[in-house]
């Protein structure tokens, strides 16, 4: 038996990207984005959606570039803070002590402390309503040099996912499931 | 220390949607999609990207509608199968015994056995390269009537996420993380 919930974003879970940019003055900024995902294999692209009112929106329009940094579970406090504060009023890097490093590939900083950094050039922009969707082509992916071969990356970086709606919680990734057809 | 990995989709994890459609002949079909995510709050929208070679692509173009069904961990075998087989050659619903039910809101079937069903009307289509991105506005979300109030939905449905790249594994969602600022 089903019940109708109306036009609701009952989407569980969403990934979490820390989207880092330079603003017009060259100041690095970072914002937590849950509205995003992979959208193309070749060229490799991800999408991130933000509201026009955000500081990040203006940086994305100006620089046409960003990095998407994958936070490990140990950075849940920073993830929460980056989603609430605005780069208009605060220097989020200074406040958290995380390190913005200029990408050699795109006009954006990546976050040194995150295990994976996706350096993206914006190739399309779509107005959808409350949110503007930016399609970022991955020009280069950086990974921690000490990630081990032979162990799934997801089990090494322990990324955070997000639960929307009334729940508003972050979760770790749990145990692997091996489908029977793969055994 | 970082190492450059090149233009790779190092995106961990991706969500998993079972995208269900009617084809030109009215036959229900379903495909596992990992290239997707939320992209707008108002109107509530998700994106799904598929290749032109898929049976689902033609159904999406023709019907301008789909449902995105969230699979629980117990359906990992079906998820794996739906990602490998094509609706051109096989009746995936018949083969798995899952139940397609006609949506009252959009021209697509939803999967009765999945806990959450997002009934979507396609409002934008973007050519990105290997994949075409469909923006689906959620007209209605259905949920199992026996989902309990007061317990996070994600902990009741135990959705599957996907790990890309060499790993190609599915994972359960793990424990909740409560950021300090929320305590």
Describe the structure.
Two copies of one chain form a homodimer. With 183 residues, chain A is α+β, with helices and mostly antiparallel strands. Chain A has one domain: Electron Transport, Fmn-binding Protein, Chain A (Pnp Oxidase, Chain A), CATH 2.30.110.10. Helices cover 15% and strands 44% of the residues of chain A. Chain A is built from four helices and 13 strands. Chain A has helices at residues 55-63, 76-84, 92-96, 153-157, and strands at residues 2-4, 14-15, 17-22, 28-33, 36-40, 45-51, 65-70, 100-102, 109-111, 116-127, 131-144, 160-163, 169-177. The first copy, chain A, has a seven-stranded antiparallel beta sheet. A three-stranded antiparallel beta sheet of chain A has the order 2-12-13, with no helix packed on it. A two-stranded antiparallel ribbon of chain A has the order 8-9. The longest helix of chain A is centred in the first third of the chain and has 9 residues, at 55-63. Chain A is globular. Chain A starts with a strand and ends in a 6-residue tail after the last strand. The mean pLDDT of chain A is 94. At the A-B interface, strand 1, strand 2, strand 5, strand 6 and helix 2 of A face strand 1, strand 2, strand 5, strand 6 and helix 2 of B.
